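Usage

Read records sequentially. Each one opens with the input sequence:
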Amino acid sequence: MSWLDKIGSTIFPLVSDEKRAEARRKAEELARTSPWLAQIVAHHKAIEQCIADALSATGIDARRHAMKQLARLNTGHSIAEEVTVYPALVEHNGVIGGKIQATLAYEEQQMTKIQQAMLEQLDPMSEEWREKLEHIKSAVQQHVYEEENHRFAELAKALSPGEAARLARRYAEEFERYGGSGMSEEAEAPLQMAAQESGSPSGGMTS
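and closes with the structure output:
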C-alpha cells in the first residue's frame, strides 16, 4: 500500500451501507423538486456502476474499458460540481460552513483523481490494481455520502426555485462541456432514469 493509499484510507473511512442508503433516500427525495440534485445523484449512481463494472470484469480489455468510462464520467461530473455547485455551497450554506464544505469536497475529488491517474500505471490484472481501485471506491463512497447526506441536502433546502433551475441548467452545461457522450449503456441508465423521473436534463448524455 502506497503512502497516498494510507492517507486516503484515513481521510475516507467507510460509512456503513445503512447510512449510505439512508443518505441516498434523502437525496432522492429532495431531488424530486431539485433537478440539479437529480442530475448529480444520477451521476453518482453511474460512477458507482463504472467502479462495479471494473471490479467485476475478468479480462484486461473489459477492465480498461470500464476505467475509461469512469474517467470520462468522473471528470465531467467533478468539474461541473466545482464550477457550479461548490460556489453555491459558499453562498448559501454559510460564509464559514459553506467554504469549509466546498474546500473539503474539492480536496476529496482531487485525491480521487490522483488515485485514478496512479491506477492507470498499474497492470489491470494485478492485485495491486484491485487494491487501489478498492481504495478509490471507498473514497468515492465517503465523498458521495457527505454530499448526499449533508452538503447538497442543506443546499437543496436553501435554494429558491429560480436558483435551483439555474443551477440545474448550468450543471448540465458544464457536464456536457467536460464529460461529453460515449458512456456505456450500464453507466448511462441511471442518468436517463433520473431525467425521466425529474423532467430535468440527463446531464448531456447522448447515444
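Summary fields computed downstream for this record:
- Residues 60 and 124 are 6 Å apart (CA to CA).
- The mean pLDDT is 84.
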